Amino acid sequence: MAEILIIDDDQLFAETVADKLDSLHHSAHCVHTLADGLEVAAAGVFDVILLDVWLPDGNGLHMIDPLRAVPSAPQVIIITGQGDPDGAELAIRHGAWCYLEKSSIVKEIALSLTRALQYRQALRGQKAVLKTVERDQLVGESPSFLHCLETLAKAAAADASVLIAGESGTGKEAFARAIHANSRRKNGNFVVVDCTALPEQLVESVLFGHVKGAFTGADRANRGLIRHADQGTLFLDEIGELPLATQKSFLRVLQERAFCPVGSQEECKSDFRLICATNRDLAAMTEQGLFREDLLYRLRGLSLTLPPLREREGDIPLLTTHFLSRLVQRYGQEQKECMPDFIDYLTSYSWPGNVRELSQAIESAFAQAVYSPVLFTQHLPVHIRTAHARANVTRQEAAPLAPPSAVPPVLVWREAKDAFERQYTRHLLQQSEGNIMEAGRLSGLSRTRLYQLIKKYPEA
Amino acid sequence: MNVLLYAAKQTESGERLKRSIEASASLEALVHCCNMPELIRHFQTPDPLPKIVVLLAANRQDLKIFEAYRFRLEQVFFILVLPAADAETVACGHQLRPRFIAYQDSDFSEVCAVLDRLEARRDGLSSGDKPCAP
What's this model's pTM, rounded to 2 decimal places? Predict the structure, then answer.
């Protein structure tokens, strides 16, 4: 049984929810203002607080932090009659457990509450000892991924140059390493050249090496990365960034497997296998004169295009399990489980950063859940939770306009006046965020009159 | 640009590397680990590391220790400074999967140039290479 505090100015609704919670064997306590809610929450021990947004004395979204900071550190579930994606995002950013619309609360509260309570239970976890293990990230069973593995197998058996294309984070370097590790060159070096990180003036000396005194600062000779790759594999990451002048020099290296270090006339040889990666359209770059066409022909002895994660159907749960197992092993923890909705959040996200972003998200969740045997959505990075919250809130559509021919019925003066006052009071309190001074300033009404209106229309 | 630097205290190359990085115009924050236990503490917590990690290996033994924490270096831009340029040391260095390799007896101007290039790319400066501060 859990202790639950309901903060909602709609007394009838609060009672209805309390009855529902009672049927779920929880104990519910209702208050109707933020001030009362904060006082009761601070004095009591609550597991969960159900918090309305629009309250007579303020906006509930602004009170999530203080409510979560009370000694019992309850989870806060936002309940609102007006679904709003921005409000949902704000709620999650402020640490709310979730954001429920009142229209569906009776149906949805049980699961949300169960998860929140399980999460609280899991927070009391065990500590860990750290250790490390080997990494292997070629995980997946989707058809597009399996197709890439077939190409990888062919590439490993051959010695031709390979061009790996794909969006950032799709695992191009991991594939390149796998090709090397499964090839006859596996005992040689796998040498990475990050073309994005090399300033133009450094590229040739880094690749081809230099002799002592070749340029200012060349106090000693340097063999260069191409010679490091002798008998092994040279991996040019983001080759689209290679300057045009260097492309020309490198083309000659590919043709002859020979080159001169900077400042030397003496030719050096290196027997390396070339694998390149790019997230750019090299064919389009050749048309724009930004990449040499003859070099492109040389690079793509075998071509491999890795699919973005969003197109790898069914792979996200597999990758998640893999990343989690790896972390568990590295940090010497017990195996962690994922709640089904944790996986739902992951599978519904678009992953613009692909596998790398997923890996980082799982690492982040793991760090958050270091003492918990179970991963909850709450452990995920906030941008993933806000994306999910936004996608699942149906924006309130404007009420359909009445057909022009439908003339509203005429109310008696007293009813029309009451309806106007009720609506005006609600709008005024929303605009002033429940601040009576501000409401007085906006409306020009006296403090006494305002209190009369609030008393007359408590639902406002 | 935030950098985690490991360079053992009171070594000439370590002090020189630290000064070079500190002179970089793009440096925002530098965390300097002066000894191996301090570095290992950073590796052993699952919290994210700074985006750039520069490790100066004083000897082959240091490279072996780094190997145990290679997984922590996969998510960052990792610059490795090797103690020597012999084939065996170089092979050990490539096992660690660095994004850039420098040598202990260099003047580290290339490390600074790479850091500035990374920062320039981050800022979306197509012209590229900002100079090191004097």
Answer: 0.67
